[in-house]
């Protein structure tokens, strides 16, 4: 991943970390998704974890005891991500929880022009997380890698749908713009490479044909060729850079006729007339017999 792509991923994560859920249930769900590992991640995610936890602690104190005894109330415990009540949670709470899980243990790779998103979690959580993603029509594969559970998407469409759902609209637009730009550059490079190769082949063929025309003209054999062959040879000498289609248009010939004439010229420059004409005589003799 290039530095520019790494900066884009950090910007996207900062955008997600800057979302402030308006519902208290969403804040609780996102805090559950962050778990206890978020404080070890980059600054915006760590600050989000502290902010959500303080909000949860304040809500717990307010609900549990009178205001005068709030200072003695213990801090609200961190809910395990797996313990989150997914089955009975509303869609917006599920979205907040998934946003928390991505910020806590998700990673996004853009290397090689492919978008790759994975969650690295405890082995026991991997099948649970994969099942929850399947519940929202975003099935993902999972496996155990070096003692850790890994839940993976390798489909750019699935990654885009997920990021859009958890609120990364701005970062996703920039990501898609870069992917389109990369695809256009790739297509342009392929077209330029193909055109360059075609041009090189055309230049090489024209050089061979001009050399063959010079040989046949020097020994007088060009003058003995059919008129169509002589016309093609003359047109090739006058316009060495012309393509077969351009020669055909100029002479009002079919392209295949121009190609056969040039092939005959090249063949005659390497072989004598007898070698070229002998198979024709044999075919005529066989037909007469």
Biggest sheet strand line-up:
1-2-4-3
Q: Using the coordinates above, name the CATH class of the largest domain.
A: Alpha Beta
Rg over CA atoms, rounded to whole Å, is: 36 Å
H-E order: HHHHEEHEEHHHHHH
* DSSP E strands, number: 4
- Unreliable segments of 5+ consecutive residues: 62-76, 274-289
Number of domains: 2
What profile does the largest beta sheet have? 4 strands, antiparallel
Features:
single chain, alpha+beta, Endonuclease I-creI, 4-stranded antiparallel β-sheet, 11 helices, 7% strand, rod-shaped
Could you explain the architecture of this structure?
The radius of gyration is 36 Å and the shape is rod-shaped. Helix 2 packs across helix 3 (43-64) and helix 8 (227-238) crosses helix 10 (255-270). With 289 residues, it is of the alpha+beta class. It folds into 2 domains: 3-167, Homing endonucleases (Endonuclease I-creI, Roll); 195-288, no CATH class. Strands 1-2-4-3 form a 4-stranded antiparallel β-sheet. Residues 62-76 and 274-289 have low confidence and may be disordered. The chain has 11 helices and 4 strands. The chain has helices at residues 3-17, 24-34, 43-64, 91-105, 125-135, 156-166, 169-218, 227-238, 244-251, 255-270, 273-288, and strands at 106-109, 116-121, 141-145, 148-153.
